[in-house]
Amino acid sequence: MRRLAPQDLRIEAEEARLLILRMLRGGRSGHVGGALSCVDILTTLYFDEMDIDPLEPTRPDRDRFILSAGHKALAQYAVLARRGYFPEPWVDTYSDLGSRLAGHPDMHKLPGVEANTGALGHGLSIACGIALGLRLQERRSRVFVVLGDGELPEGSNWEGAAMAAHHQLGNVVAFVDVNDLQISGRTADVMNMEPIADKFAAFGWKVRTIDGNDVEQIQGVLAEVDRDSSSPTAVVAQTTKAKGVSSLEDTAASHYWKPAAAEMAEAEAEIRARLQQLSLQTVAR
Amino acid sequence: MTAAPELVDPRKTFGQAVTEFAADDSRVVVLSADSGVSSGFGAFRDRFPGRYLEFGIQEHGATGVASGLATTGLVPVFAAIAAFVTNRNYEAFRNDVAYMGQNVKIVGRNGGMTYSDLGPTHYSLEDYAIIRMLPGVVVLSPQDPGEIRAAARAMLTHEGPVYMRIGGPAIANLFAEGPFVIGKGRTHRSGDVATVVSTGPATANTIAAVDALRAEGVTLDLLCMPTVEPVDAELIIESATRTGHVITVEEHYDRGGLSAAVSECLGPLRVRHDAIGLPHQHVITGTYEGLLATYGLDAEGLTRQLRDIVAAGRPASAK
């Protein structure tokens, strides 16, 4: 586990955003909105929180990360590449025939991926199984999960919510990436699952609510998690869909985006400008 | 007069076999969906309480848990009512177990129509069909207590996903206990008129039917198949090539399961294949014996069906 300055995490997250866009070059399309909303959470977990070693990705006592909302794979690929799990140029093979980087993550194809996810509502139960297995083998590793607010109507999430509390899986930390949007529109209009925090609390979870695009708040909430607790932790992370690309932000259209060349150039320029500003601020300090 | 054969509970037999294996292999953990004891795991729970994990009534979530447990190197065994560990959790079975290639063992008990009076929601007559469509999953269907014990050990030794179906009602020994190899069947009777292939609890009545026809001078090859997927194609093709006629028998719909597995391996041979199983319709409720009689799967019904099929399959000159 490392302790990075928030500014370093912000820079890493912007670098990951650039990689997310890079995977769409060449006329490709992908689940960009959700990837950009959760990338600050993944960056903080992989660069600052989790006990992991990219050179030994299957070390038995590593912390685990499960992307339950598997369509946000672009974010995981970008962060894994930045963290050194595989050579960065691999991202250019995204969605190629037989690629290691498909539209949803595959544990047998890419180092650092712990589960094949994508069909929604599966991640929490898998995470609970890993957490139980670690505990049975007396390992202190933890399991981090990212759920999407749009997948919460799947009842299997609530099977997971019940079992995590019942089996006292304090080694599970689940982030709910609440970007308020899904394919068909506002989650509140498609199927309202609010109050999300109250639902997890009612199942017996410790619940925190934060701004999920603010790395300082993500770091703060992770610092508060007591790994010896008997309760799992749910972090309700309010985010902005497509965060960081202003033309797309908070739009349902960003869910699955196929950018025209000009749109791509504009989005990349915006992120680069922010990166430069962040770097200058770092130098100035 | 011969003494009645000793009948034993297949679930207890299975649970005891897993418990004995688990004594020497601490990786084995058992998952229960409010039904572990009914699945034969009372002794396991008492002996290894820390490795007996209860989830209440939730098969989808428990299957996901099994997947997660397997990623940490454990060998999870999830046993519950066959209909619910194949149908209700099918997507978790497909994605979290089969696609992820996990070392997970899922066991459906009270398979077929053995929950006779509880009705079709509790029958599993399509489980082989849907599970054998998942690449890389072994489907086991042991036929007597000895095979259940041997199959349980083979299942736990095999690296990869396995589905095993056992029944509920007490069953008798049929075979001398011997080595069990996944994917291998056994020739239990030899004959030349036709090849009968059976699996699971249906095998007991099939043996009786084959012996009844033998008394009438009709000798049938009887291949007993404790593995539905991968089926023992070598054994089936060798026999079918000699007899030119294959008849499958199973307590499953007469399509998609053993019948399909056999049919697929016969393809190039162009031999006649008749399938005995449940007709593709929603079946009625009642006593188990009553259902077997109604659908022609008791010894008398199988004798009648085999006799008719063999007669219809013979060249006209031989009839």
From TrEMBL, chain B:
<dbReference type="InterPro" id="IPR029061">
    <property type="entry name" value="THDP-binding"/>
</dbReference>
<dbReference type="InterPro" id="IPR033248">
    <property type="entry name" value="Transketolase_C"/>
</dbReference>
<feature type="domain" description="Transketolase-like pyrimidine-binding">
    <location>
        <begin position="8"/>
        <end position="173"/>
    </location>
</feature>
<keyword id="KW-0786">Thiamine pyrophosphate</keyword>
<dbReference type="Pfam" id="PF02779">
    <property type="entry name" value="Transket_pyr"/>
</dbReference>
<dbReference type="InterPro" id="IPR009014">
    <property type="entry name" value="Transketo_C/PFOR_II"/>
</dbReference>
<comment type="similarity">
    <text>Belongs to the transketolase family.</text>
</comment>
<dbReference type="InterPro" id="IPR051157">
    <property type="entry name" value="PDH/Transketolase"/>
</dbReference>
<protein>
    <submittedName>
        <fullName>Transketolase</fullName>
    </submittedName>
</protein>
<dbReference type="InterPro" id="IPR005475">
    <property type="entry name" value="Transketolase-like_Pyr-bd"/>
</dbReference>
<dbReference type="GO" id="GO:0000287">
    <property type="term" value="F:magnesium ion binding"/>
</dbReference>
<dbReference type="Pfam" id="PF02780">
    <property type="entry name" value="Transketolase_C"/>
</dbReference>
